[in-house]
# Entry
Amino acid sequence: MSCQQFDEQGWLYLSGELDRSESLAFERHLQGCEACRAAVAEARQWTGAVRELPQERPAASVRRAILAEAKAQRPRTGVWHRWLEWHRALAWGVPSLATAAVVVLFLLRSFSGVGVRPDLLTWEGGFRQETQALDQAISAVETEAARDDLETWDEPAPLSIMESEIHDLRQDLGQDMDALDW
Amino acid sequence: MAQDDSQWVKAYQRGDARAFNRLYDQYERPLFSYLLKMIGDRSRTEDVFQQCWMKVIKALPDYREQQRFGSWLFGIAHHAAIDAIRQAKTQRTDEQASELLDRHPADTATPESLLVAQEDQARLQAAIERLPDSQRSVVLMRLQAELSFKEIAEIEHCSINTVLGRMHYAMNNLKKLLFAEEGGGRDHVMSTV
# Structure
């Protein structure tokens, strides 16, 4: 049997959750209350016995699986990972620079009059055709970069541009054939 | 321990997998023991144990230490244990419980020496497993996981007075289960109101 004081504060006192003044007040109470002293002693004995119960472990395979998953899912913030991120940014940035370079080159050719195709004399039309070809080349590069994290960006393969032109020609040819059928 | 936990959590968030190993090693036994004593079935416990850690792994990169890591971990485990118990719908019958106690019949040792021998530990363990789920949970979280009563109240979404009441009844019930005369104590396990 214990008095109400133990019921209200005894367990908190034993777990160290009373603040300093409450703890001192409870200890003063213990000095004058035999019932609470007995209750505290008994509670210490029981809690000590439960604490001493052996603790079990899971199978070793469970531990291995958990640690392997933690390793696989760990945040990637190391120097190597940062270098990969920088390189990926570079792979995206170079096509943009190449596009700008080609545009500038086109403009220079246009103004110099050397090797200018009559159908590309208008700035808008010529620019649109050139950028369409470059967009297709960039898309091809982007697809490859997305597939491989450590992709080294190469110059757009001329073959890609040729393939796009071939595609355009086929479309034009198809339309002409349709016209003949009419 | 809390300071070390914080240190390992931050190290893992920076990408150090070995830091997680330290956290795991710190809590492997207390957490598994808690779940095993709550759920009872070893195979099921291993599944739940693994699920708890998978949740931790998933959430740890964004964990911001709103509470102590151990408290957070056992909160996950507590709810997982309750779900597992409900799913299994296993209730320890008096017959099953008496089998546990009958394996280790009571002797005439005094309370002070009763809890020392290995056989006594087995009987204490069996008695804990006979407690109502709410009382067993409080006892195990307080005394095996070393969570504070305040943390337990937060995990169980109840007042601290409720938690203290469950602890009080749990201790009384353990005494009754271990020291009542054979066949007389099993019907007197008290539940909280």
Remarks:
- The longest helix of chain B spans residues 17-39.
